[in-house]
């Protein structure tokens, strides 16, 4: 059996067993694994028990209280090594009254899988687990190693999932596929950087009836500072030449595929600025002596966190205000994997093989665990089933057909990646 015949056989097996695939996805959605609080005990036990049914050994790694990383491997240790990666945590369901259905029902209705995590990313995680177990059940003799890494702590940007596994040398490989939500034909192979910071502005308290002649109003100064910080968007940034093809194809994607995103094309080349929270003052009749503002900036290729900080400081120093800046949360530089890397080719080629349609990698304007793999020189991309408008919102859902398609791509990509030297 040649590679093409093997891939087609595996794709047929996914199709023949798709009812089990969908049932597994429903079961995962029915397990609340909201983060916060981040307790992955129940869902980790379920996944481990499922794998053990097919004689797949599972390593447990508790990185923090009730946060479990599961790792399982099959194949030849001496060959190439591909990592399947997915997270078990989901964002909180929020106000249940705003859902049209039980967010933890895992119900299938009118061709849609319903529930919290359906798109982000229990459908993708299901596809990885199912493809991994199917290779074992079919006794496919892989000429390389395939590892399944299931992590607990992605949605809060925490350190107890992928970063913890990499830092402790528990996983390493020649390529990685993360089943994060993506467009059906366009995996994400690059990401903007992230820079979250808190600006604290200091004033002098006084009686509100004497403002602005008395005291120094920290909130007023913070408003002036925000106005200057928002000028980051106006910066002209020189994108490195090697990145320009990725920017261009990503903008093409926004014009031709996700057409509702046409207006967002500029975000790929600009620093975005979101003033997310502001807190200051004690009472309306007291001049506030402090004000805290939290800002989320996403950085394109061509600019660093240090350069952004320098720009902000130059602008704020000119205001003659008293302030400090403290970085927190998501922090990374823009990063990508070359479209011609074997792991990217394995996915895009097999999206085309399964669907008969053109596939190409694009850039993501947000961040994920992919950046951590790239920090360890592991080529990585993201591809998973999703209804993108529903992610992190009410009434999250994904098309059942897409769950099946992605699982077929996952299992076929293993063949192309591991059987190619």
From TrEMBL:
Gene3D superfamilies: 3.30.70.360, Zn peptidases. Residues 189-323 form the Peptidase M20 dimerisation domain. It is an enzyme of class 3 (hydrolase). Its EC number is 3.5.1.18. Pathway: Amino-acid biosynthesis; L-lysine biosynthesis via DAP pathway; LL-2,6-diaminopimelate from (S)-tetrahydrodipicolinate (succinylase route): step 3/3. Keywords: Cobalt, Hydrolase, Metal-binding, Zinc. Its cofactor is Co(2+); Zn(2+). It catalyses: N-succinyl-(2S,6S)-2,6-diaminopimelate + H2O = (2S,6S)-2,6-diaminopimelate + succinate. It holds the Pfam family M20_dimer. Coiled coil: none annotated. Belongs to the peptidase M20A family. NCBIfam families: DapE-ArgE. PANTHER family: ACETYLORNITHINE DEACETYLASE (PTHR43808), ARGE_DAPE-RELATED DEACYLASE (PTHR43808:SF32). This is Probable succinyl-diaminopimelate desuccinylase.
């Amino acid at each position: 059996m040649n590679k093409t015949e093997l891939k087609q056989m595996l794709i047929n097996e996914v199709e023949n067993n798709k009812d089990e695939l969908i049932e597994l996805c429903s079961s995962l959605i029915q397990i609340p694994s909201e983060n916060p609080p981040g307790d992955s005990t129940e869902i980790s036990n379920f996944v481990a028990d499922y794998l053990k049914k097919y004689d797949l050994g599972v390593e447990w790694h508790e990185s923090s209280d009730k946060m479990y990383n599961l790792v399982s491997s099959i194949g030849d240790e001496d060959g190439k090594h591909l990592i399947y990666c997915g997270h078990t945590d989901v964002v909180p369901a929020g106000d249940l009254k705003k859902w049209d259905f039980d967010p933890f029902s895992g119900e299938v209705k009118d061709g849609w899988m319903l529930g919290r995590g359906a798109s982000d990313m229990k459908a993708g995680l299901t596809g990885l687990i199912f493809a991994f177990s199917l290779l074992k059940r079919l006794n496919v003799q892989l000429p390389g190693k395939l590892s399944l890494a299931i992590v607990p702590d992605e949605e809060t940007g925490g350190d107890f999932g992928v970063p913890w596994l990499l830092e402790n040398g528990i996983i390493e490989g020649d390529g990685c596929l993360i089943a994060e939500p993506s467009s059906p034909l366009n995996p994400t192979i690059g990401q903007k950087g992230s820079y979250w910071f808190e600006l604290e502005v200091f004033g002098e308290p006084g009686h509100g009836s004497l403002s602005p002649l008395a005291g120094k109003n920290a909130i007023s100064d913070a408003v002036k500072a925000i106005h200057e910080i928002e000028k980051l968007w106006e910066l002209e940034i020189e994108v490195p030449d090697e990145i320009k093809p990725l920017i261009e194809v990503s903008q093409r994607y926004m014009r031709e595929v996700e057409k509702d995103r046409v207006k967002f094309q500029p975000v790929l080349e600009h620093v975005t600025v979101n003033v997310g929270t502001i807190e200051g003052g004690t009472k309306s009749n007291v001049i506030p002596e402090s004000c805290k503002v939290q800002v989320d900036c996403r950085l394109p290729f061509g600019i660093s966190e240090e350069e952004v900080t320098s720009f902000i400081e130059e602008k704020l120093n000119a205001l003659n205000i008293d302030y400090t800046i403290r970085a927190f949360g998501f922090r990374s530089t823009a990063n990508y994997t070359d479209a011609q890397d074997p792991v990217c080719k394995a996915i895009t080629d097999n999206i085309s093989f399964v669907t008969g349609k053109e596939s190409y990698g694009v850039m993501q304007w947000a961040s994920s665990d992919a950046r951590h793999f790239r920090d360890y020189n592991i080529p990585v991309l993201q591809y998973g089933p999703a209804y993108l408008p529903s992610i992190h919102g009410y009434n999250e859902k994904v098309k059942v057909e897409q769950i099946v398609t992605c699982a077929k791509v996952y299992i076929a990509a293993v063949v192309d990646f591991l059987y190619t030297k």
